[in-house]
Amino acid sequence: MKNTQAELAAHERMKPGIITALGFLGKDDRSLADIIAADQEAWRRAGVDPDDAVAFLEKLRDEGQRGLGEPISVGRRWVVSSGDARGVLPCPYEDGSYHKNSIEVMDEKTGNHIVYSDLSIHLLKAHRFCQGKGSFFRLDPEIVAAMMD
Fold it and tell me: Which CA distances in Å does 123 have to 54, 72, 112?
């Protein structure tokens, strides 16, 4: 799939060492358009609207913040830890800056585990970008969908 000029520029900013030390692409060498298209198809196959996933992730983040950095049980299924760091991270698409934080969720029903941030939520909500395969903060559609089930 062909990338727009904005996607090409964002892709460059997603590389390691530009915005974050590890970047947003992991070991994924596909184009940004191809990564997004594949993840959109994965959301479709899972029967999950990405906006519903965003709401789910925001709810877990908000509940997890009540633990003040300590793990907290949410809904008798998830264990959530939320940590904050000083500063903000700019979106690689250059449409805002987001609180630097980390939310870790363990699904005790499935054993699935994800780590994400406010920037991760924004990337999914505004750009449908889940991050590349192998990225530490990747919101794998299959894993998130299983956690929502």
Answer: 10, 25, 21
Tokens of 131: 């991050």
**Amino acid letter, 147:** M
Write the pLDDT tens digit of every residue in 94-118.
999 999 999 999 999 999 999 999 9
In 10-146, beta strands by DSSP E: 72-74, 78-90, 97-107, 113-116
Please count the other Cβ atoms lying within 10 Å of the Cβ belonging to residue 132. 20
Residue 46's φ and ψ, nearest 5 degrees, are -75, -10
Q: Where are the domains of the chain?
A: 5-148
The edge-to-edge listing of strands for the beta sheet with 97-107 is 72-74, 78-90, 97-107, 113-116
Q: What pLDDT, in 10s, does the model give residues 35-48?
A: 999 999 999 999 99
Element (H, E) at 144: helix 141-148
* Torsion angles phi and psi, residue 34, rounded to 5: -70, -40
Contacts for 32 with CB less than 8 Å, ≥ 6 apart = 3, 7, 8, 10, 11, 14, 129
